[in-house]
Design goal:
Largest interface: B-C, 65 and 55 residues
Mean pLDDT of chain A: 85
Shape of chain A: globular
Mean pLDDT of chain C: 86
Number of helices of chain C: 11
Strand content of chain A: 15-25%
Helix content of chain A: 25-40%
Chains: A alpha/beta, B mainly alpha, C mainly alpha
Number of helices of chain A: 12
Distance between the termini of chain A: 23 Å
Order of helices and strands of chain C: HHHHHHHHHHH
Oligomer: heterotrimer
Helix content of chain C: over 70%
Radius of gyration of chain A: 20 Å
Order of helices and strands of chain A: EEEHEHEHHHEHEHEEHHHHEEH
């Protein structure tokens, strides 16, 4: 097993009325990609922000290399983030060079911006340009270069390709894979596209209504989905646009059914107790698990 | 209702701040101008009047600032604003209650006219962007850059001195007694024409510009585009879709800039010797009549706050989002 | 930059020049009396003379400096205050925002003119700089309100989050990430404040609560009004100063349109 870089234990984030994240635990290992799959409103972006320490958790703790890090700056040196929208995550008034020089300076790294540009396969003469002069894919590479400047162990990628043209998505994903290998990065890949998780991630977690409902290695989660929600997600995968519309649940609605299973209201296999009791995690084989009552009798509770 | 309650609470805080500022100013600033005035008036002040001036201006050094503050509120709640030096020995409250109706009549009516007129012209200017209406902008900018009082002076010199068409000063003709007669009302209206037009002309520009810019912004919104695509008539789109949404910021702007507009309008009263609060304030300045000046400030603040509350009700009626909140 | 903005900047530059050299190029001592009483404009007195034979052209030239100094001082002070309050409120959010917003709204709603008149007339010596300071205290609120709204929308933008995630400190994010994006709003607030301050100062001089020992356009109007210039048909006594005020105000407003159009492309003129 690869060495553990970041571990989240029982994270809970409650906003005024809404429980955005409920009891999320996950482990990120060096040199491995972990995918977190869910629709908008599932709480997956909040998980990214919690792990980046941009948002304070209501409950739970985050361990970096096995210990709690008090100092935010020390934490940020090791945990970096790439945002979803490369058009919004770069400040329009600063040059690319400024964006790359700052983290180098903050974390006292010896590299030059030129070296960072090379690492993300961009020409060095882009450094004097402004964000609006670059394409979406180029901007996202700049954002990745900025994250790499700190020499992080962990890279949190919040839907890094969803705003990009389909034709250039693969290039950016391959760049991330390549960097993961070379720099032994622990990558959290957040996405709504479960098909890309299979291609890109070693391990996949599925999130619904603020909770992780299924997890395991990507191959078995995507090929033998256990949770009815994951099954629905995969059925609708060929047409990702439709899946989002069909399954998208307003956050309030999700929060309202907090007593039992979050998915009960739209689950085709819902039973009476799904409404009243939260399902425990059940092992469905080879470290692959699902939080669903369907597997409690047949396989036996693993909770 | 929550919206209105919150606004009302805010206005109470504002009123409290204004009253407290009024209380603190004579105590914080150096010099004792009121003491000097009392000495000058000497024996002509009776002991009651003297006592209330002491309370209002903090001349009683023996009392703590907190006791003074309590006494001050006590005096205000009794309606005791002290004696006016200018109109000695009339109490300030009496002077104010005589001049307030004139100000409410003149400034209230003209401000509403200016707002409605300016908003309507702004709607057209924003809708017909690129037409001849755009030439209105430099003209209105120039007009809005003229101080109210100077425009008043020009108006007097043209329409009262060079061509003696309208009276230049006062609220009604000398020799008339205020009563509900045709002659008196006619005279009042005649005297209100010049100051009224002055206020409207110099304040209308701001509304035109603000509304035009909002219209231009709103016209590019999707819902206007959709309304167009649905084939609705131009007029309907302009008023029911674009203007309806553009007017909301204009109304909140109206409420917030009332204090500023009223200040300018007070100056017009000064220039035209109109018997309202502005002219009273002007007379107070000359005589260093602090009780009167402070009284004017309080009454104007109160009036502006009430007008603000009314604007909020208007906003509430037009904006479904705030309505639902209640 | 379009013609309107250029025109505005040109007029502003002209008045700035007069503010600097006005004292030297004035043909007469503005306070010196002469025997040419209340004479209309002529070759000797371009803008005519006052009741006591003072040269109005010289008064306007010399008075420009007082106007511009107050405008500038207030513009700087009030803009600084509005950034301090507005950006802080917008960036911090929560209870701090509620309190600071309520504070600016209180300052906005309270009628400034009567309040300043009271303060100015209570001050033992109401000289130019002191008046500028008092005006600044009432002039910052509008800018603060606008800046707060803008900051609030910037604060949740991803590049601010990204700066935090890369380890920037809060003050650096405010100064180097947020403020530069607010420059257009700050500039337009500055120009607006200058207009407000100039108008207010002239008004205060006109009603006679400011020290009359230094000349500005408002004091000229004060003397014109108190000497019944209107009744005597001496239009030249109050027309030049008033036109200067209007010209300066128009110039500043034109500059502000330029800034607005730069910041909000929708307002740009449609090309036929």
């Amino acid at each position: 097993m690869n060495e553990v870089a970041l571990e989240a234990k029982g994270l809970v984030k409650t906003y005024k009325r809404v429980r955005a994240v409920q009891d999320v635990s996950l482990v990120l290992r060096r040199g491995r990609v972990t995918a977190l799959v869910g629709e908008s409103g599932s709480g997956k972006s909040t998980v990214a922000k919690l792990l980046a320490r941009l948002v304070q958790p209501t409950e739970g703790e985050i361990l970096l290399d096995g210990r709690k890090v008090r100092q935010v700056r020390e934490y940020r040196r090791k945990v970096q983030m790439v945002f979803q929208d490369p058009f919004a995550s770069l400040n329009p008034i600063h040059t690319i060079r400024y964006h790359l020089t700052r983290p180098l300076k903050i974390h006292k790294r010896p590299e030059t911006p030129e070296e960072l540009m090379e690492r993300v396969q961009l020409p060095a003469d882009f450094l004097s340009r402004y964000p609006h002069e670059l394409s979406g894919g180029q901007r996202q590479r700049v954002a990745i270069a900025r994250a790499l400047a700190a020499h992080p162990e962990v890279l949190l990628a919040d839907e890094p390709v969803s705003m990009l043209d389909v034709s250039i998505r693969l290039g950016v994903l391959n760049l991330l894979l390549d960097l993961k290998e070379r720099l032994k990065l622990a990558v959290l890949y957040i996405t709504h596209d479960i098909a890309s998780a299979r291609y890109f991630a070693d391990e996949t977690f599925v999130m619904y209504g603020g909770q992780i409902v299924e997890g395991g290695d990507s191959e078995s989660v995507t090929q033998q989905p256990a949770h009815p929600y994951t099954q629905l997600l995969i059925e609708s995968a060929p047409d990702p646009e439709r899946s989002v519309v069909a399954l998208d649940a307003p956050v309030e609605e999700v929060a309202a059914v907090s007593a039992g299973c979050q998915f009960a209201a739209r689950c085709p296999k819902a039973q009476a107790r799904c409404w009243t009791d939260a399902p425990p995690r059940s092992d469905v084989g080879d470290g692959h698990w699902a939080a669903c009552w369907l597997y409690v009798e047949t396989v036996g509770s693993a909770a | 209702m929550t919206f209105l309650l919150r606004r009302a609470l805010f206005y109470l805080i504002t009123l409290w701040a204004a009253i407290t500022a009024n209380f603190l100013l004579p105590r914080l600033l150096p010099g004792d101008p009121v003491q000097a005035m009392i000495t000058k008036l000497g024996g002509r002040l009776n002991s009651d009047a003297m006592a209330s001036l002491y309370v209002l201006f903090g001349l009683d050094e023996k009392k703590s600032i907190w006791e003074q503050y309590v006494d001050y509120w006590g005096a205000l709640l009794r309606g005791d604003l002290g004696l006016s030096f200018t109109f000695f020995p009339t109490p300030v409250a009496d002077v104010l209650s005589q001049s307030l109706p004139w100000t409410l009549g003149l400034i209230g009516v003209t401000t509403i006219i200016a707002f409605l007129l300016g908003t309507l012209m702004g709607v057209y200017a924003g809708w017909k962007r690129g037409s001849w209406m755009d030439t209105l902008i430099p003209v209105t900018t120039f007009l809005s850059s003229i101080p109210y009082f100077w425009l008043g002076l020009i108006a007097i010199s043209v329409f009262s001195v060079t061509f003696p068409l309208l009276p230049a000063s006062g609220g009604y003709a000398a020799g008339l007694v205020p009563e509900w007669s045709g002659e008196f009302v006619g005279s009042v209206l005649e005297h209100a024409v010049l100051p009224g037009i002055t206020i409207v002309v110099s304040s209308v520009a701001g509304w035109i510009l603000g509304m035009r810019n909002m219209m231009v912004t709103v016209t590019a919104e999707d819902y206007v585009l959709v309304a167009r695509a649905k084939g609705l008539s131009e007029k309907r789109i302009m008023f029911a879709y674009a203007a309806r949404n553009a007017v909301l910021p204009s109304i909140s702007g109206f409420a917030l800039s009332l204090g500023f507009i009223v200040g300018g309008a007070l100056l017009v009263e000064m220039v035209f010797s109109y018997p309202g609060l502005g002219y009273v304030l002007f007379q107070g300045i000359g005589a260093k009549d602090y009780p009167l000046m402070q009284g004017v400030f309080l009454v104007i603040t109160l009036a502006v706050l009430v007008a603000n509350l009314l604007a909020d009700v208007g906003y509430l009626l037009l904006d479904p989002r705030t309505r639902r909140e209640g | 930059m379009n013609f309107k903005t250029k025109l505005g900047l040109g007029i502003l530059a002209f008045f700035t020049l007069i503010a600097v050299i006005g004292d030297w190029i004035a043909p007469y001592d503005p306070s010196a009396m002469s025997d040419d009483l209340l004479s209309p404009p002529s070759g000797a007195h371009w803008f005519g003379t006052t009741m006591t034979g003072q040269d109005i052209f010289s008064q306007v030239l010399v008075g420009t400096r007082g106007v511009m100094v107050v405008g500038l001082v207030c513009g700087v002070l009030a803009t600084f205050l509005s950034i301090l309050v507005g950006v802080t409120a917008g960036f911090l959010g929560g209870a701090a925002d509620e309190a600071l917003s309520a504070l600016s709204n209180v300052f906005l709603v309270i009628p400034a003119l009567p309040l300043i008149i009271i303060v100015a007339s209570m001050l033992p010596s109401a000289d130019t700089v002191l008046i500028a300071a008092v005006i600044s205290l009432t002039a910052w609120a509008w800018g603060a309100r606008v800046l707060r709204a803008q900051t609030l929308s910037l604060r949740r933008r991803d590049f601010v989050e990204a700066a935090r995630a890369s380890g920037e400190r809060t003050w650096r994010i405010i100064v180097f990430e947020v403020l530069p994006n607010l420059m257009a709003v700050i500039a337009s607030g500055f120009v607006g404040t200058v207009i407000f301050a100039v108008m207010l100062q002239i008004t205060l001089s006109f009603v006679g609560v400011v020290s009359l020992s230094t000349w500005n356009w408002g004091t000229i109007l004060f003397w014109a009004q108190s000497n019944q210039a209107l009744g005597q048909g001496a239009w030249w006594w109050f027309v030049p100063a008033g036109l200067c005020i209007a010209l300066l105000g128009t110039a500043l407003a034109l500059i502000n349109f330029g800034i607005d159009e730069y910041a909000n492309p929708r307002l740009r003129k449609v090309r036929a």
